[in-house]
């Protein structure tokens, strides 16, 4: 008899001793015999070994074809399932029999219990009942250790002592652990007990724990039946709650790939590492937490929804041999029979350990099934790889996997390692006209960063498993938008070299919140099947393409070679374009065709249309289909133009033509630079252009690129020859022409011809009368006008060049056109003499071949202007009358008495209304000739009392003024007119509330001389680079170089006896004059601007301005002079009038002729430079409020002009 039989007989004998023989006999014959068979019970928790299962399923496949293998696989699966069902049915029958026997035994046990209770009532009460026994609240291992330690050595027990076999669920522990030795010892100990009461309690404990053990085994069977289904979790939670009465029991599934823990019944997701669940997983052992909300790891967001009011919570992780947590069992508030919350007991821990083991065995069984499925799918690859029709194959794979995984849809993204992107295969159209059967498969390329969740799996080479697709940071609505609110699983397939060959994406789990590890395995197996299908498809496509190419190449090459011969003989671009389009249209079979060439000057493209219209159309860079192709070099072939957002339908609307299909191919030069593109419109006899058409146009455009490059080089050489011929002709005219008009006429005529302008003018600058006079005889009527008008006046005063594409949008100046001219475009260039002064202006109007003058035209006109400058140098000295120099200087019209007087005569005085104009902000210096400007200066010096105080004769003053005018060069913003304007503005400041009475006469003389001479002798040649500037700073001891030069020019000028206005001053006054005058002129260095304002602010912060303080007055004079030298920004600005006299030099230089930039620079200058200056002047003296008011008006005016050019946001 084996050990199990011995145990059965021992238990039978033990039960007979209670007096109920029938009950004991029944128990010995059925329950104990089944409970004590470890091998039989083990069969309930194991599956066949993998090798045996594989042999059952696959057999020997080497001698069968692919279809037979698939059939064999299915038969093997059916046979395996049938065997499982038969085995389960047999086990269920056994369980039913056990339950019946248990019911009989339980009835007998109840009868025995009633008799035992009567006996117990007559015995001592020192031995506690099982229900009142104190079960330690320690871990299972500690309880077992303590129990063994406290066992008595014999069967004799004290009356008040509880036997060890009644403690800590010894029977249940032995059953669950299948511990034969412990069970033998228990039986031996019980049978040796003589005390009837103790034996009765032992019998009661035995029956109770046997019943619990049976419940656990039934639960295991149910879980085994539900394994692999969505009901596993629900079955587990419901049955465990029946075993362990609790407020709530949850089974959490750990999904490592998604880094979340999922409760399906509670519909909750907890991120990995969060809350008490995260703590239990990280520690990997059981946690019992009284008052869990006080635990530091408690999370209101993740623990609160389940255990917000719980008193005791238990977490039991289920850990595999790799120390990986698979599930977590959570028990919330274990309840006693009375309904109170208690701490889990030793029985509870035993049960939880058993449940953990059961779940682990189920997981192992599921893993074996997953491996089996993987083997089945991998084996199926052999038959799939023999399928040439890839799309039906992929559809079958998708249907199979969606069924196995339980998802709504499946997408497969293949990886293109060369391009570095992903693509999907889809059904294509059979090519028309193909002489062989070309596979109807097309691919849709997708950039990795636009592939959504699939792109993340590809980049990271890791599985991506998310519960809600649109919550993933890389969610892409176009790719992932089919099921945005459902779970998504993306599995990459890694090759032997670690590269990703494809990504399989399953979407929308039909049952459950998340995809599981089994789903990942199935998708990975599917990936390998699909990879083989792709290899077949690529091989098939390659073979078909090679066949088609061989059939068509001979026809293409013959036609292209003939075209190449014709194109190489044409050097005229227009003729070449027509020929190219005619040939291309016949080759491709298009209804219309166009050629677009890159516009190097304006950017964008010019179109040359072969059919339908004769006009050329300019297309902005990147605009429309052609613009996109010319910018990116990409070939575009679209069947319906109106479905492409890049298509511009405006041409169709204007012509009534309907564009459908478009083929646009770039044209490149021999160096690979895109020089244009061909656009074929509406394929004849077909809905769209074929792949053959694309290949033909690509090859055709190679010859087009070569021919167009040659034609452009020929035209460039022709134009260069014309330029050289024109320059030589003008150079010859310089030496042979006898009159200025003859020479100027020759220059203008050749310039107009070469720059292709409708009209060309040349104007001479008359500085004495501030006029612009037309020169030459070119058949266009032009009249003289003021230097402050027209774009010509603007260039004369600023020295800048102007190239305007649309004259109507230009608001900087008022243009004066002859009646027969309607200007569209305009190019204006200054004419400089040998010293760099502006002596004339060249002006071209309306480009005949393009909508604007190019940079090459600008360079050409600049070259012709240089010839005009040489002509001026040659003829000005010989024929001054032609330039208005016949006016008699003012000093020559005065008598000796008038010249020696210190009070001006009536002929020199300024009367109303000129008196008011000279003393106002509305003064316009360019409205008066040179002699009139001298009279204004005499008036200013007289009003300030300078002539009479320092005994300066009128003649000396006029010679002083004349010498100053001669030392000012005719440079924009640095001429004599600008000096007079500065002096007049300084005079206006002094006249405000008679401010001049606060200064001494020598201070006033120094101030006005500094204003008149602040830019004396200025030349563009004194502008130096940074290295030279550093050397000059050392030489001049950090004094400003330009301002020092102006001071030196003034010293030299006053050293001339004929114009020395200091002749009658005593030495003390002379020293004071030079000290203050030089100090004022040096203060005009731009680097001193902020320092002067800061210094005045500091003084004013100490108290009111003190006119008795000599240093304070000198500082005020510097600030007033600062404002005077920028007088143009303070004078009234009227946007309806020319801007010539209202702009600042720095703004003009920075703008480089751009109107918007000029407005931005003017606004910036007024804000950053003029506004702080006026602010500090206002703090110093309140009488300059009109200056502040006018500045605000000007700022608003400039801003309004800028707003007109700035598009609304």
Automatic annotation (TrEMBL):
Biased composition, class Low complexity, residue ranges: 1-20
Pfam families recorded: GAF (PF01590), PDEase_I (PF00233)
Residues of the PDEase domain: 896-1209
Keywords: Coiled coil, Hydrolase, Metal-binding
Compositional bias segments (type: Polar residues): 22-32
GO biological process, one term: negative regulation of cAMP/PKA signal transduction
SMART domains, alphabetized: GAF
Gene3D superfamilies on file: 3'5'-cyclic nucleotide phosphodiesterase, catalytic domain, 3.30.450.40
One function term, GO molecular function aspect: 3',5'-cyclic-AMP phosphodiesterase activity
Region (Disordered): 1-36, 139-159
Protein name: GAF domain containing protein
Positions in coiled-coil regions: 71-126
Organism: Trichomonas vaginalis (strain ATCC PRA-98 / G3)
